[in-house]
Design a protein that fits this description.
Nuclear Transport Factor 2, Chain: A; 124 residues; Nuclear transport factor 2 family protein; 7-stranded mixed beta sheet; 7 strands; alpha+beta; single chain
Length: 124
């Protein structure tokens, strides 16, 4: 498996962990200083994982739209971009999202870890 295939598999595994709603499993894909940048601003790893751990935030769907994944490797950094559809459950409500996501990974002694994720709503 080359680096591109490895990163594609890693990104798919991370999405499966999010749908499994297992904070410990989700956390293994993230660096300690990981952040999520979206329309609400910048969210931290600790906040995201605490919401999952408490059950306040769950996901029942997190899938890349086939043919939209793009992976580029720049030495020990990689960028994975894809259109992702997901369903989250928060505050007693369901949220259905269609977003372009970008995950930036850094290669460490333990393998690839995500350092930042960006989500932008898809327009059509």
């Amino acid at each position: 498996m080359d680096e591109i295939e490895e990163l594609q598999a890693l990104d798919r595994a991370w999405r499966r962990a999010i749908v499994a709603n297992e904070a410990g499993e989700i956390g293994r894909f993230m660096s300690e200083d990981w952040v999520l940048v979206d329309g609400d601003g910048v969210g931290t790893r600790e906040k995201f994982l605490s919401l999952v751990s408490s059950g306040a935030l769950t996901h029942s769907r997190m899938e890349a739209v086939p043919g939209t994944e793009r992976v580029r490797v720049y030495g020990d950094t990689a960028v994975v971009t894809a259109r992702v559809v997901n369903t989250a459950h928060y505050g007693g409500r369901d949220f259905h999202a269609d977003e372009w996501t970008t995950d930036v990974y850094r290669q460490t002694d333990q393998g690839w870890v995500c350092v930042i994720s960006q989500a932008t709503p898809a327009q059509g």
